[in-house]
Amino acid sequence: MKSRVFAICMSILLISANANGDEPVKGEKKTNHPIYSQKMKSLTGEEVDLSKYRGKTLLIVNTASRCGATPQYEPLQALHEKYGEKGLAVLGFPCNQFGSQEPGSAKQIAEFCERNYGVKFDMFSKVDVNGDDAAPIYKYLTSKQAGIDDTGAIKWNFEKFLVSKDGNVLARFRTGTSPDSPEVIELIEKALR
Length: 193
What we know:
By secondary structure, this protein is of the alpha/beta class. Helices cover 30% and strands 16% of the residues. The chain has helices at residues 2-18, 73-83, 106-117, 136-141, 182-192, and strands at 39-41, 47-49, 57-63, 88-94, 122-123, 160-163, 169-173. The strands form two sheets. Strands 5-4-3-6-7 form a five-stranded mixed sheet, with helices on one face. Strands 1-2 form a two-stranded antiparallel sheet.
């Protein structure tokens, strides 16, 4: 009798715990994460649902073609080649907010990246990363909501954000930190485990 009462109580408890609707139903994906709930345009103009990156480690970078840091495209591509099949997705977001160093059209940016650096990682259409018109992904990445100590405006081109497989921002690397620096590599490898 006691075991039957216990079983009934446990059933009621489990049913009420599931009734709150906070957890997805088995097979249902949560889409309300600030990164995965967005759609962006690729450099070729296609709409990309960022939920496709759920479960991948992300390195999100604001890029420019006429910047002293532009050669960082090379180690970014190397990271894509080395870790892409292991679950790393490098996402490039061209931006013209710093010294007008990304003035070209999407086609010109794509041609530049391919011709000079053989870029094959995912590149998106030009965005603002600061201010009222900043892309929502950058509003999130630079906010306290992202959960890192280094918050606030993007200072220059080629700032990098490392994001875990479940969407947690792990680190922010400023322009002066190369994508192939030991600290970046160490954190990428740790995030991929």
